[in-house]
Amino acid sequence: MTARRRLRRWHRRIGVVSAVVVLGLVVTGLLLNHAPSLELDRSRVGLSWVLDRYGVDIEPPARGYAVDGHWLSVCGGELFLDDRPVTDLASLSGGVSLDGLIVAAAPAVLVLLDGQGGVIERLALDALPGRISEIARVDSGIALRVDGRWLASDVDLLGWEPVASPPRPAEARPLPADLASRITHRSRARQLSWERVLLDVHSGRFFGPFGPWVLDFFAVLLGFLALSGFWLWSRQR
Question: DSSP secondary structure string, 125-175?
């Protein structure tokens, strides 16, 4: 068998094997090129096996606050109303209802929500009487426990006065198991975007530490295809 025939045979074999890899690179490259218009940077991954592949592990919320038929809880650095993520929040000091609204209290912020989980207002620490350890519902509005004492708000949550008798604070309760599972799944999914996954597939990092080396090997094969194809073409001419 002549060298030309052997080269042609290897050219065909390598071309068939490399075609699958090239097709994958083409698809992922096109998707990444249009990632903003396709909203891949904001689309979250909900596949458990992909999240497991990245080691995304979120501790399930064990307790929450029941408010007007809803549950307030914190998972993965976010406040959840039932199983809907609402806003960034590291911890939760309590939750109460106020004139059809839901008030979630954290040590350094108050979050006012409507019944659908829309954020109406966030009151930061500079608009509060101090760091919040507990929250309760009182006749005038709400009361906050700050530095060991209870302070009640006016109707606009602008002024704060000492409370004569300590109110009953909101109590954390165990979350229903199915709700905690849904919250954990949604919180895990929000940690990873499809753009990140496609970038890692395109570069080979998705397949582990040897993934980039495998792509490097196929890059060398593609270079061989280009050179051998050019040589076969020139010999045929």
Answer: GGGSSS-EEEEEEETTEEEEEETTEEEEE-TTS--EEE-SS---B---EEP
Cα–Cα distance list, 202 to 30, 51, 136, 205, 206 (Å): 10, 18, 52, 8, 8
The C-alpha angle 25, 228, 223, rounded to 5 degrees, equals 35
DSSP type of residue 93: -
Are 74 and 187 a contacting pair, CB within 8 Å? no
Q: pTM of the predicted model, to two decimals? A: 0.71
In order along its 237 residues, the chain shows pLDDT tens digits of 566 666 566 656 666 666 677 777 778 778 878 788 887 877 787 777 887 787 778 888 889 999 988 999 999 889 999 999 988 888 899 999 888 889 999 999 999 998 788 888 888 888 888 899 999 988 878 889 988 889 888 777 778 888 878 788 889 999 999 999 999 988 888 888 888 888 888 777 777 777 677 777 767 766 766 666 665 566 665
Q: DSSP letter at 60?
A: P
Whether 73 contacts 80, CB under 8 Å: yes
Reading the block at residue 37, the tokens are 């218009």
Dig out the tokens for 112 from the structure.
């006012």
Q: How many CB atoms lie within 10 A of CB 189?
A: 21
8-state DSSP, 117: S
Cβ–Cβ < 8 Å for 59, 78: no
